[in-house]
Amino acid sequence: MSDAELVNLDVNQPLWEHFFTVAPLILVGTKEEDGNYDLAAKSQCTPLGKSNYFGFVCTPHHNTYHNIKREKVFTVSFPHPEQIILTSLSAAPRCDDHSKPSLAVLPTFSATMVDGVLLKDAYLYLECQLDRIIDNFGENSLITGKIVAAAVQNKALRLSGFDDQDLLLKAPLLAYLSPGRYAKIAHSNSFPFHSGFCQ
Ligand SMILES: Cc1cc2nc3c(=O)[nH]c(=O)nc-3n(C[C@H](O)[C@H](O)[C@H](O)COP(=O)(O)O)c2cc1C
Prior knowledge:
It is built from 3 helices and 12 strands. The protein has helices at residues 63-71, 84-89, 164-170; strands at residues 21-24, 26-31, 37-42, 45-48, 53-58, 73-78, 108-110, 117-119, 124-137, 140-152, 173-178, 181-185.
């Protein structure tokens, strides 16, 4: 591709509205100061290596950040594509008294190892103990946790001898296409690994 086909972007401005990137879409669960439980949508999230750490980006303007700083734990629910409206409701604005009434319609159940709730009927659950918070990525922080409990829906569990493509047809994944779109992923291809590849 010649340089003439590239558009240079101003790195002194936020870049991310000018193109699409793909990310998971999760609900992070925390305990509020008043004892209620919060769920909030997050798309900037990732496993951290293979040793069962998980991290996500959060601004200190959100309750999620302060709840985790105080309680030192959080939960993660990975919703199915059919749960997109519930996911969106978890990101509804707070009222003047800082309550988030939209949470009342989110079906939840208690986590097993940490003080928090999880979204019912999601396909993957993580319960995390705070590892560290790294502040000052501009306005944002990276919150990382050690996973202390995890569960996956039976229909989303990979099993040897079963076809991965069939699994995705049975349990499609929810992807966030930032900014502002989402996709249901039911079709995929095997990655063309080089012979002898090892991670
Ligand atoms: C699709 C989507 C993705 C989001 N991703 C993030 C994210 O990665 N980090 C973040 O801090 N907020 C993210 N948000 C915004 C929070 O979910 C939202 O501000 C929420 O109300 C914060 O709730 P809290 O005050 O209970 O923490 C996202 C919202 C939506 C709708």
